Amino acid sequence: MGVKENLDDIRERIAKACHRSGRSPDSVALAAVSKFHSRDEILEALQAGHVLFAENRAQEIVDKFPDILAHHAGAAVHFIGSLQRNKVKKILPLVSCIQSVDRREILAEIGKEAAALQKTMPILFELHTGEDSKAGFAGEQSLFEAIDLLSEYPYLRCSGLMTMAPFTREEKPIRDSFRKAIAVRDECVKRYPSLDFSCISMGMTNDFEIAIEEGSTLLRIGTAIFGERA
């Protein structure tokens, strides 16, 4: 199937998972992960009415998205990978969210560059909730210490949390990972009532239906939309 057909299939599966969970399909957003896929494939998704994309490599954003964002109203791209400090300045003018804030040093760099651009930058804090996931804040205390620094960076806007479940066919560790993220989110809401933690980015091609059942509001799906890497 082509990109349009794949998107239609994913939207149907999202709707069914939402129905099972007593949720509205409108409560779950979808970021199409276009890493290693061509600009033409992204354009095919745009022609099918999809506008939100995600990349995990800074150079791919720089190579593919300036023209797309300039010529397609509503198109947006999130950064979801491990971000090096020297790449922040390159991607910040292009991205509408950095989902993978996983350490205080990168928070500071994003805050500095956002101020230089005078651009409000939504961010998600990445949690390490699965044994296979090496990135992210491993404990609540280190996460809270990073969140406490937000007051130093007026151009950063907390939008929620992101996590990645372990790569396994067993359902329990996947659910446990997602439930841990939701529990941390709930604690953040209590601890920081003035901040926004409404976005929970979790769920990929192999586990997005479980993620919906556990409360995800933003999915990151690549292979099921664009196929295997070129």
TrEMBL record:
Residues 6-229 form the Alanine racemase N-terminal domain. Its cofactor is pyridoxal 5'-phosphate. Keywords: Pyridoxal phosphate. The keyword Acetylation does not apply. Pyridoxal 5'-phosphate (PLP)-binding protein, which is involved in PLP homeostasis. Belongs to the pyridoxal phosphate-binding protein YggS/PROSC family. This is Pyridoxal phosphate homeostasis protein. It comes from Teretinema zuelzerae.
